[in-house]
Amino acid sequence: MHTEVNPESPFGGPSVPKRRAAGLLGRDSELDTITGLFRTALLGRAISAVVVGEFGMGKSSVLDAAGELAKAAGFTVAIATASRLETHLSGGVGRQLIEGLTHAPAEPGSPRPRAPHAAESLPDRRPRNEQEQTEALDAFFHTVRHAAEQGPVFLGIDNLHLADPWSMRCLAYIRHRVEHLPVMFVLTSLIGHLQTGEVALLEMSGCTPATIRLRGLGTRHVAEFLRVSLGRFAEECHKVTGGNPYLLGALRRRLVPGMDLDAAGSAMIGEVLRVRMHEYTAAPKMLEAVAILGEDASFDLLAQLAGVDEITALEAIDTMVRVHLLTNSHRPTLTYRFVRNSVLADMPLTTRAVTQSRAARLLHDSGAPPERVGAHLLEATAIRIPWAVDVLRLAARHSVVEGDPELSVRFLSRALEERLSERKRMAILLQLAHAEFHCDPDSAPARVREAVDHIDDRETAAFAATAMILSLCCGPDARLAINSAGQFAARLDAGGPDAVWPLLCMTYLAEAGSRLGPPPDFRDFERQWAPLNDPAARQSRSGLLALDTVRSGKSAANAVRHFGEALSGEQPELFEQPYFFTLATAVLADEAALTDKLCQVLDIKRLPWDFHVPKGALATLARGIALQAGGDLVRASVHYESLVRQFEERGATSRCPIAVLCAARLIEVSVDLGRHDVANAALDKLDFGATQALFTHNYLLYARGRLRAATGEPELGYEDLRGCGRRLEHHGMRFPGFAPWRAHAARTALALGRTDAAAKLAEEDLDAAERWGTPRILGGALTTAGLVRDDGHGEEAERLLTKAVDVLGESTAKLALAEALTELGALQARHGQDEKAIVTLRRAVQSGKHCGARPLARRAAEALRDARTSLTTARDNDHGLTKQEYRVAVMASQGLTNREIAEALHLTRRTVELHLSGAYRKLEITGRTELSSALGRSQRVDGD
Questions:
Q1: What keywords are annotated for this sequence in UniProt (predicted)?
Q2: Considering the entire predicted model, what is its pTM?
Q3: Residue 108 pLDDT more than 60?
Q4: What is the DSSP letter of 164?
C-alpha cells in the first residue's frame, strides 16, 4: 500500500490509514492510540508504546494488528516473540528482529538492499569479553539504522518479560541511538511482572513511552465473540471471565444450552496457569490453595493449606496480585470465577477431595460458621470424614433458616454418606425430610418412613421425633411434624406408655397449638397417665394439668401449683413448646419465684430446638413478659425490641409463633408507653396471612386492636378485640389473663357509645377474673366494671374502682394500679369530690410515670389540674358546678349535641353525659331545655 500526502497536515507529512485488522474485537481505542504515534515516527523521530495486560488479555493480537497497520502505513515491520522456553537462549529475540528487518522488502514488489550486518552477526551466545559485546551491539544497531535509513521501521517485541537478557540489553543499547530515526517500538508485557534482570523496561522503551492497558472486553463484544444474543446470558459470561479474550475462547468451546456458568471452567486453562506459575516460588501451591478456599481464603489459612511458611506465602500472593491473577484484598481470591473453576478442574479428583477436607478442617478449627465449613465438605466426596456429620447438620439447619432448603438437602445428603449409627441416621433422615418438604412436599413422607425403619432404640426414637415436633412449629411444617410423630408413635406403642409418653405429650401440645378450633379431648389423653412411673413423665403430666387448668380458667392457685411441679425437674423441652410457653408465661408473670425458675430452665447453653429462635430468646421473652405484668414497661420494651431485631435477621418475624408473640407484646407495651410509631412499625413487618393458623395470632389480633383503639380507629380496634375473643372462645380458652380482650373491648365500646355491649363484656370479664382469682387480673376487671357502671350518682362505680385499687395495691401490678387510680380520681372529680380526687390523682400520676405509661400519666395529670382548678373555683358560683361541668352545660345550653361537645372537649360521649347529669343535679333541673334559664339565674345571682 502507498502512502499519500495529507494536504491538511501542518507538517505536510503522510497520512495514516484507518484500516483495522479483521477479527479483533473491542480494541479500536488501543489501536487508535498506537496508530496515532505513527506520525511521530514517519516524521523522523523514534517513539515507543508499551502494551500491558493480564494473562490472555490479547496483547499478542493487538501487537499483530498494530504491525499490519504499520505495514500498511509504509513501515518495515519486524516482530519478535519472546518465549518461556527460549529465555535462556542468548540473543533469541534480537535475532528474530534482525531476520525480520533483513528479509522484509522496502515496498510491495521492490526488494530492499541487504543490510551490511546480517543476522549471523549477532552471536548465538552472550559475548565473553568487552570487545565481543561491543561488536555484537554495534552489529545490531547498524542493522536497525540501515533499515531506518531506507524507510520507517516498526519493531515489535511480544512478551518482553520473557525475553533473554542479552536481547534486552541490545534493545536498551539502540534505543537512545535511534532517537532521530523513524523507528517505532511497540513492546508487550505481562502487567505487574517484576523486572529482575540487568535492564529496566524504561531503558528499552525510552523515558516516556505511551502505556496502553488492555482491559476485558465489554458485554457487547463478549456477546459478539461468543456468538450469543446481547442480554443476561452475555452479562453472566462477562462476569465469570471478566471479558478476558483467552478465557472467552475456552468458554466458547464449551458453551452448551442451559449450562451453569458458575461451574464453567477448563482444565487446560488450569494447566497453563499452573505451569506459568512454576517460575515463582510456591506460587502453584498457593494458586491451588486460593482456588480451594475461595471466599474463605484468609492469609493464615492459605499458608497452612499450601504447606508453606508465611513469608513464602506472602511473596507468592504478592506476585499473583501484581499480575492480576488474584484480587488485591484482605481475602485474596482468583480474579475470575472461570479461572478458579479451571484450576480446580486441573486437580485430580482425589487430590481435590482431600485438599477440600483439609480446608474444611482448618476452617472448623478456626471457628468458621458451619455453613462455610459445610461448603467445603460438599466438595470432599468419596472420603470419610467422621467429624463432619454434626457440622453438616448445623449447616443444614442454618440453610433452612436462611430460606435455602435445597442447600440444606445437599448438606444432609452428604452427611448420609458417612458411616452412621442407626440412631444418627434416623435423626438425619428426619431433618432431611423437613428440608425436602420445603422443596418437594410429596417426598417428605417417604423420607419419614425411611427414618422409622432405622429405629433401633425406642427412647432415642421418641426423643428424635419429639425434637422434630419442637423444631417444626408453624403452619405446614407443624403438620408434617405431627404426622411424622404419629408414624413413630405407632412403631413405639408396643413398648408401653413409658416408651411413647414423651412423644404423645409433645404431639398433643403441637395439635392443640396448631388448631384454630378446640384442642384434642384432654380426658382421652389423661387416661394414659395411670401406668407412668418415670419422674420426667410425671413432670410433664403436671405441665399438662396446668395447661388444662389454664384453659378452663377455674383456679389460678391450681394452675400455679401444677406449673411449679412441672418446673421441679430438668425438662426444658416442655417449656420450649410454643403453645405451652405462650400460656405458661402468661400465668407465671405474676409469680416472681417461678418466673426466675422458668428463666433458669429456658436459659440453657444448647441451641433451641426451633431453628427460628435465637439462643437465649425464650428466657429473654419470659423476663420481658414478667416485667410488663409488673408495670416496668420501658425495660420490657427493651427486651422485646432486641428480640424482634433478632427474629427479623432470621426472616422469621411472621413464621415463628414465638416471634409473633414477641412482636405482639412489643406492640402492646408500645401502646401503653405512647410510642405509637414503634407499634405501627412492628405491625407493618408482620404478615397476618402467614400467622393465621397459629394460636399466637390471637394475641396479635388483641395487640392490633389495642393499637387501633388508641390511634383513632376505635371501630376497627373493637372488631379486632372481638375477633380475638371469638377465636379464644372457639379454642376453648377461658383464662382471662392471656389476652384481656374483654376489658379493652368494653372500654372501646363505651367510646363508641355502645353501653349495653360494654356492660355485658365487663360483667363477663369480672366473672372470669373472680373465678381465676389473681390480683392483677381481678383488679383490671374491677376497673373496667367501674367505668361501665358509672351512672349518674357513681356510688357503685366508685365502690368497684376503690376495690380495684385495694386489690392491686397489694400486688406487683403497678400499671394496673395506675389505671385504677386514674379512673377512680377522674370519677371522684366528675362527681365533685375534688379533694379526694386530688389525692387519688397524685398517686395515679406518680404510678403512671414510674411505669413509663406516658398517655396514662398525662391523662391523670390533666385530671389533677382540672380537680385543683375546680376546687378553687367551685365556690365562685352558687350552683357549685365544676369547671368541666360548667363548660359542658354552657355548650349544651347553646344547642350543641353530646357528640359535638365530646369532640370539642376531647371527651367520650359517656363522660359528657355524666357531666350533664351532675350539672342537672346541682342546678336542680330535669333536662337540657332548662339549662339556659338555670345558668342565667346563677349568673344574675353572681352579679348581685
A1: ATP-binding, Nucleotide-binding
A2: 0.65
A3: no
A4: -
